[in-house]
Write a structure and sequence with these properties.
Layout (H helix, E strand, L loop, with lengths): L10 H14 L12 H8 L3 H13 L3 E2 L7 E2 L2 H4 L13 H25 L2 H16 L3 H17 L4 H14 L13 H17 L2 H21 L2
Antiparallel strand pairs: 1-2
Length: 229
């Protein structure tokens, strides 16, 4: 693998990023052996400890299979990885984008239904307040943060741990790359009333109305995102 010596700052991070990009780009194909650690260290002009730390992170993301005394093999992350792999994808291709926003819509619709049935009074009030914040957001950055806060609170109100963990994984992709998701809030003046309607339905315990409203909101956002992809 070429690319010259790695900068001395955050060496393990740089090694991780280079190997990650090589794997995700197909430079190292699924099933292929990575070069030996000593060879990688020499190629990147780093010490063995930095290579080992980078490989450990890749293994945690299930991008590689590291076995003591054997070659490190590249895994097919689409079959071996978990949601945490989303956070290291970098630029999403069209296939990943379609899948991500379809999954987002399905998760939010069911979350709205469950939140209407399970939310506490405090959670209902939080959603009402966050919906109001969305209504007064004046720029994309503020609106994106308000959108995320509302949706995160919606998922939390379900009381479903797995839904919460999924949202946590998506957050690691969303927040560091928030500007890439600006189309979600491009039509915020038109969509803002949907947040308020959903919050009101959840506060009233009207699960069908909450689900229907979030379905319309998330589908409109999904279409905006994919149109700009």
């Amino acid at each position: 693998m070429s690319g010259g010596p790695v900068p001395r700052s955050s060496v393990p991070d740089e090694v991780f990023l280079r190997l990650r990009d090589a794997i995700l780009s197909g430079q190292y194909a699924a099933g292929e052996r990575l070069p030996a650690q000593r060879a990688l260290a020499a190629d990147l002009q780093v010490n063995m400890a930095s290579v080992r730390e980078a490989l450990k992170r890749l293994e945690q993301l299930r991008l590689v299979d590291v076995r003591h005394g054997e070659a490190t093999r590249v895994l097919d992350w689409r079959h071996s990885g978990g949601l945490e792999a989303l956070a290291v994808l970098g630029v999403m291709d069209a296939e990943v984008a379609v899948a991500l926003f379809e999954a987002r819509r399905v998760l939010l619709v069911e979350s709205a239904r469950l939140a209407a049935e399970r939310r506490t009074d405090a959670q209902a009030q939080t959603l009402v307040e966050l919906a109001a914040a969305m209504g007064v957001a004046r720029d994309d950055e503020t609106a994106l943060l308000a959108d995320w806060a509302f949706m995160a609170a919606l998922v939390e109100a379900t009381g479903n741990l797995i839904f919460q963990l999924i949202a946590n994984s998506v957050r690691e992709l969303y927040l560091p790359n928030a500007t890439a998701f600006a189309p979600l809030v491009a039509a915020r003046e038109a969509l803002a009333p949907r947040y308020a309607e959903a919050a009101d339905a959840i506060a009233r315990g009207d699960a069908p109305a909450a689900a229907t409203t979030i379905e319309a909101l998330s589908r409109a956002q999904e279409q905006s995102m994919l149109a700009g992809a």
